[in-house]
Structures are given as C-alpha cells and as structure tokens.
Amino acid sequence: MLNTTLCYIEKDGKYLMLHRIRKENDISAGKWIGVGGKFEPGETAEECLVREVREETGYTLTEYKQIGLVKFISDVAEDEDMYLFQGTAFTGEQVKECPEGQLEWVPAEEVLGLPTWEGDRYFLDALLQGRTNIDITVRYEGDKLVEVKDRSGEPEVEISSLLQAAHGFSTRPGGVSEGIFRTMNLGRNRGDVPERVNENWRRFLGKCGITDRAVVWGKQVHKNYVHIATAEDARVLNEEAAPMEADGYVTNQPGVTLAVFTADCVPVLLEDARHGVIGAVHSGWRSTVADIEGEAVKKMIALGATPEDIHVAIGPAIDQCCFEVGPEVVEAVDSLLGSGCSRFYEPRGAQYMLDLRGVVRERLIQLGVLPENIEKVGGCTMCHPDRYWSHRFTKGERGSMAAVIRR
Asked: Which of 195, 194, 187, 238 is nearest to 394 (CA)?
C-alpha cells in the first residue's frame, strides 16, 4: 500500500493549486492538483504533509486540519491511501519555481473547473463544502474512472450522562478500515493497516472532544494491575510497542487521556469530578474476579477521590444473554462478591450464563460507589456485531474498540 498526503491550502477565498507541467513521465501531467507526496519511512501523515508542503511551495504550515482519506485502486499502478488535508495558515515565502509544476492561487469557485483527475472532483467537492471525515474510494482502469464509493460518515460514540470529563466508548461505524476490520478498528496489534488505525483514532478522539493524540495505554494481560498515570506515560498511538502491562489507569493530572481496549470485555470509566480524579479499566472476567475494580477505587482514593463522589460508566460488553462460562468462573464470582450473588448467573446445562456487567456494578457498590452514580452504556457486543466488536462472535477475526477519558 502506497501512503501519500495531499493538501489544499486556502487563503482569502483562494486555493493553492499545482499545475503538473514540469516533471518527466508524470502520470498527472497537465492536470491540476494540491501539493503533497509519499510518506518517507517512519513518517506520520502530519510529518509527511509538513515536509512535502515546505519542499514544494516554500511554506511552513502553521495551521491545518486532516479531513479524510481517499483510497485509489488501479489496474496499472500501486493501490494508494491518500490522506487529505486543508491548510489554513503558513509562514515563509513561496518558491519561485516548483520542481513539480506551476503553483497558482485559484478562486474557490473555479477549482472544480480545472482539468484534473475525474475522481478528484468527488473529494474536492466535499472539501469545498467543508465536509470532514471523508472516506472515498475511487477505482481506475488505466486512466478511466470506473467506480466511486463514498463511505464518509461521523464516528458513532457512546457517552455517559454521569461523566463530566471528555470521554467516549467507540463503536464500529465511522472509520476507514477495510475487510475484517471494517470500519472503526482502534487496535494496532490486529493486523490492520497502521496508518488507517491512526486515522480511526483521530476521528474517534475528535468525536470525544479530545484533540491531543498522546494517550496513556498499554498491553492488557487480564490481570488486576492499575497504574497511576502521569503526563509522562502518554504516548502517541502510532508507536508499535506498548509502554507497559496494565489493565487499568487512574490519574489526577489535567490533560491526560486514559484508554483501554475491548471486544467483549467490560470497559469501565470512572470520574470523581469534585476531586479531579479519573480512571479507565479493562475488566474481563479474569480481571474482574481478581478485583481490578477494587484496585482502581483504592488508587483513586490515594489520589484524593472519595467513593461516594465517584461516577461510573460501564460500557458495551458481552451480556448474560451470550456470555457462557464454566463453573470455575461462577465460583470465582462467589468468592469476590460473597453470598447472594447467584442472581448474576443462570445454569445452562453444565455451564452458566454470566452477567459480567452486573458483577462489575455490584462490586463497585460494595466499594462504596453509590448505585445512582453508576450507568450502563451501550448494548451487548455479541448481540450487535455490526455495531460492536465481539471476540466471540468473530472467533477472533476482528478489530478492537476503545474507551477513553480525559480530565
């Protein structure tokens, strides 16, 4: 997959366009396009954008926004993912001569009238309309446009009415991934195209009201370790290696985003707005019976929270209707919650159907969280595989959801 960027810089109602008339053996010879080019090894889309604009125009972008992804499929050229940007402010002087062609500022109303690739008109029209989260696929046979698919759409994020902090639980719609990862896959270790995962994260965080791409995350190992996070733990999500092993995080530092990943397990977001403490927990059955909720609440208290001020959102997860477990799991639940917990599981032959979200809620109440301060958000992941990722439904051939919270 070839990864490229393309930027349309706007100023005073005009766009900087490049007339491709200088480069030899140029597939776009004679056409008008924006400025951009190929990723260099290790570059992000943003880094490629800034470098290419500087090299081709002399300008250093100071304000820009990523507005989407255009996928090119061809029978004569390498398939390409082109990350589309709009630039709105810059410094520097325009080069006298661009090696790619002639640069010209063109009034916005004249841009679509320029000779360009036929498929470009679809995303140019979207850009000129001010649309964002563009996801358009164009397919060529030779230089003939034979198909256009516009899957542009907003991510659908589920939120809690109880939490004041910026937060959200992701769902499947609104991303740019393909195949078994279609469309909003946020897992970097699933085999998806990394650059598409980055774009999914941009869209998801933006929908949650979070613009900073640095997030506290780690390798989840289905245990009960909860890390007290600081700004130094936050890393951009295009880094391959997980910075730590943990299934939960808490912090009292402003501007720190916490993230956990799920695909049937229970995501739990916690907030004590009064004392400025937040948490995020990945609560599979193993972590739950190991009392990860107890660890999270204990460490939130260490940061100044009080249980009666903690508000909790329990996100989309596999529910009792679909979660079949063995007797060893219900024995562990009995050990965690004590007497009277049989209401959270029902026998089915030699197995049991477990209400894991109910178990998590009950444990939080035991820890001092008020029942009215706990909200279940979203539905059963296995019952709704088109909306949520479910490990059991897909038999492991899947993407991942995420839950994030930022104080």
From this structure: 187
pLDDT digits (tens, 9 = 90+) for 366-376: 999 999 999 99
Distance, in Å, from the CA atom of 310 to the CA atom of 83, rounded to the nearest integer, reads: 41
CA distance 354 to 5: 48
Question: What tokens were used for 202?
Answer: 């941009």
CA 330 centroid distance within chain: 34
Length of the chain in residues, anyone? 407
Only one residue has tokens 């198909």, namely 147
| Residue whose structure tokens are 């907003």 | 154
* Helix (H/G/I), strand (E/B), else coil: 46: helix
Retrieve residue 26's tokens: 């140029």
Comparing CA positions, the residue from 278, 275, 266, 280 lying closest to residue 362 is 266
Instruction: Write out pLDDT tens, residues 90-110.
Output: 999 999 999 889 999 999 999
Residue 51 Cα distances to 4, 54, 61, 297, angstroms = 12, 5, 9, 46
Q: Kindly list the strands in the beta sheet with 277-283, ordered across the sheet, starting from the edge strand earlier in the chain.
A: 226-228, 248-251, 277-283, 266-272, 311-314, 374-376
Alpha-helix residue ranges (DSSP H) falling in 58-177: 120-128
